Amino acid sequence: MKKLFAFLMVVLLVFIPVFAGGSKEEAATSTVDVSNITAEDLQNAHITIQMWHAQTGENGVALDKVVELFNQTNPYGITVVATNQGGYTDAHQKTLAALSAGSYPNITQAYNNNMMEYMPSGKLMQLDSYLADDFGISQEELSTVVPAYLGENKSFPDGHTYATSLGKSTEVMFYNKTFLDEHGLSVPTTYEELAEVSKAITAITGKPAFGHDSMDNFGIYGPINFGSEYADPQGNIYIFDENNIDTTKAFYQWWQKGINEGYFRTAGEDLYCSGPFGNGDIIIYIGSSSGASYITPNGFEVGVAPNPVGPNPAVIQQGGNFCGFTTGDALVDLATSIVLEYLYTAEAGALYSANTGYAPANKAALETDVYKDSIASGNLQAQAKNVSATYPDEYLAYDPVFENSYGVRQILSDVVENIALDPNADIDALIETAKSEIGI
Fold it and tell me: Which N-terminal stretch is annotated as signal sequence (predicted)?
């Protein structure tokens, strides 16, 4: 990891150790030509990196452990100070304000659609060249990062990489194993089987059998599973065009049939399906793998399985990522990239995953003792995490980021929600309304 990192730039000679925040202070007039950076240069600079994040509870504790391990083991003498800024909305708003003020952290945690709002500052760090150099993560270890994570973090309009990931949750299927076993029902693996099993359950219980926690996800990944293409990072929406409208409508009709015949439902006023599932009111639901800890089963055994899929299997992987901001100091920016790259390593991912309900970003983490020990407990969170971590690469999907991508997501969510709220909903009319709101 001692390749010379060649480039020319002006460095502010304020003081050493280097202050790593993006300061509003005026640049000193003295400059030095830095054409080569070595590990020794970084060590001598004693750089401190400020990291803002949105992790709380056990996730926050786990991130602190990752940061502590990095601080103890990185060969460059870099120190990371991680500070919680509240939830994702809080962290995002504080980051925007800090960028506007000109005094900002080196790293922040955010959803990729929020990172789009950091781009006008001119400070959001492109990571492509850093990921290719010999500092930080090796190319061998980068090759074992989950491909969908790498894809998501460069799924911006310009195609550049602006983020890295530590761990993610996915959607998984929780089911009342006791009930299915007692009634000789199989665990569904496809959308078609899900409808058949749900219908059989409702015939026994007289209640809806299946619920889905997230209409936001279902509104995109339901049609994708039926064969539709959603959108691209340039903001082209395909889900309702002539090549996709039939499969999109087929999903809506499948969902509407289940609602009308009484075997599908939404979370509704319960907000999440874990409550009615734990009470035995529903027998199967799809929710986040990280939500397993919220399930309190009332006298039955819970099973966890991969999501049922359609002809075009797609399962969302979700969670905030980490991005960096440039400072104009070559040493500091390189140090920032090294920290971001560390989050992609098996070491970091295994430690974080072992202490949370999230799957690691690096598949090699699954072979580490710390991850295996966390799975060996066999509890529900461990089961859900392991299902999440072992989906086939080609199943894992993500939303492309483009202007108003969040708004489009909400509009598609409304279509699925409105079908559930009105048994007589006119699907064609809902599609036309959605197209008008999207502007296509």
Answer: 1-20
